[in-house]
Amino acid sequence: MNRRSGTGYTGIPPWIYAIAAAGAVFVLLPLVAMVAKVNWPQFIPLITSESSLTALGLSLRTSAASTAACIVLGVPLALVLARSPFPGQRLLRAFVLLPLVLPPVVGGIALLYTFGRQGLLGRSLELAGIQIAFSTTAVVLAQTFVALPFLVVSLEGALRTAGNKYEAVAATLGARPSTVLRRVTIPLVLPGLASGAVLSFARSLGEFGATLTFAGSLQGVTRTLPLEIYLQRETDADAAVALSLLLVAVAVAVVGLSYRRPRVGVAPEGVFR
Amino acid sequence: MSIPRKHFAALLVAGALTAGLAGCASGPPVATGTASSPGASETPKPSGTITVFAAASLKPTFTRLASDFEAKNPGTKITLNFAGSSDLVTQITQGAPADVFASADTKNMTKLTDAKLVDGAPANFATNVLEIAVPPSNPASISSFADLARPGVKVVVCAPQVPCGAATVTVEKAAGTTLAPVSEESSVTDVLGKVSAGEADAGLVYVTDIKNAGDKVKGIPFAESDQAVNTYPIATVGTGKNKELAAAFIATVTGSEGKKVLSAAGFGTP
């Protein structure tokens, strides 16, 4: 199935194309409808208004920070899940992946009771002089919480596909575990890591529910682009549509960037198996 | 309520036919349907189903009024849909099936009348004012509106784009106090959530929200609140299917029974 080269045989019955086309239309039509609603003469002023640019800037900054946090926390998690079997591993994986299926607002409530002023850790943090509620840090925490599984899933998949033959060889040649990780494992799964990171970024960019519940909404501090869209919708539908289109454009650019890479990197591994 | 709707419709038709045929006969018309129910043979009684779109802040009162109405008028069914008023207007203009619309402000009702989706003139049935909500322990010792502007006090308000936020701006001007909120939320619920969770020291919400929240928050009234009185209008939606039942329900809301339930919940009379 993976060998697409040479014969030109795809193995797809023609009727599959019809349903696939319907599926594509189902996803694209709402976007087309939104584009049709855009007030084009006002488009540029709407997306370059001060509040819009502030929200976009905040979204890009917090998403970048969340992606960094996802890499720092997610790479070790994926390594542990993919490489070292231990009791309760399946349970741990299930819990790490939970934010994927959890409604973000539930995530927000959970974060509130963890890092909030009255929360599990919040009280100690408050005593240490750290206030997370209503700060940009809260936005980053919310985004990291919902985006982490994307990185872990992508990377764990890449690690499993790559196998550990090369690492074993490196170890027999005398490389220490840290060296193996740095020189063999990470370079091997770099495409998987990159696509996971890009997906995490995209998820962070779109994060709404957890942010609204946990971080609040204040221009320049916690009001990211999705929250700005939600608020603008109350009074100015044109602005909401224009900003939605902006968010879609950024998301498409980001996801488009990610989905060219892994195929190049992962395919040869698949062929080796 | 216990009669299946299909039977009830049959009964109504039967009742109507009987009433028509018996027009020249003496004595009360007798229902000839299979099921019998008290009052069903009296023709002017409202019946059937309506959908009421009401502002989120009306949830406790309208839920109560609707179930009372159903109990008093067997065979009627009132389906309630609560959301932010502007969301509801969007839904109705996009074709959502609503028979009655109750808005938390006149602005959103005007949007619907401008779209020619309202039958007749909307009736104002309640008013609401802002109040300061604080966590039960009142950690920042708030006792007046001016206290909210003290440095270090974490105040959460509604964004100016939503009705409660617009009221907040008016009150700020009237009081001559400018607030520096830590968050401007999109809904009263979000403000209240942050206060009851203890995240914020104070929030500005409606009197009725505080009453409804029970002992999770404490309310602190302030004099300037009467500068921003929110009026709640209700109207029959033009595209509705059951105008008769819609009118009957509106009469209940605007009548003495509605007034009793609404004022118990903290609403004022317009």
Describe this entry's structure for a reader.
The complex is a heterodimer of chains A (about 270) and B (about 270). Chain A is an all-alpha fold and about 270 residues long. Helices cover about 80% and strands about 0% of the residues of chain A. Chain A contains 14 helices and no strands. In chain A, helix 3 (about 50-85) packs parallel to helix 7 (about 135-160). Mean pLDDT of chain A is about 85; it is low at about 260-273. Chain B has about 270 residues and is of the alpha/beta class. Helices cover about 35% and strands about 20% of the residues of chain B. Chain B contains 9 helices and 10 strands. In chain B, the strands form 2 sheets. In chain B, strands 2-1-3-10-4 form a 5-stranded mixed beta sheet. Chain B has a 5-stranded mixed beta sheet with strand order 7-6-8-5-9. In chain B, strand 1, helix 2 (about 60-70) and strand 2 form a beta-alpha-beta unit. In chain B, helix 3 packs parallel to helix 4 and helix 8 packs across helix 9. Chain B is elongated and about 60 Å long. The interface of A and B includes residues 113 and 215 of A.
The CATH architecture assignment of chain A turns out to be: Orthogonal Bundle
CATH class of the largest domain in chain B: Alpha Beta
General form of chain A: globular
Please give the radius of gyration of chain A in angstroms.
22 Å
What class would the helix/strand composition of chain A place it in?
A: mainly alpha
Low-confidence stretches of chain B: 1-6, 8-43
Number of helices of chain A: 14
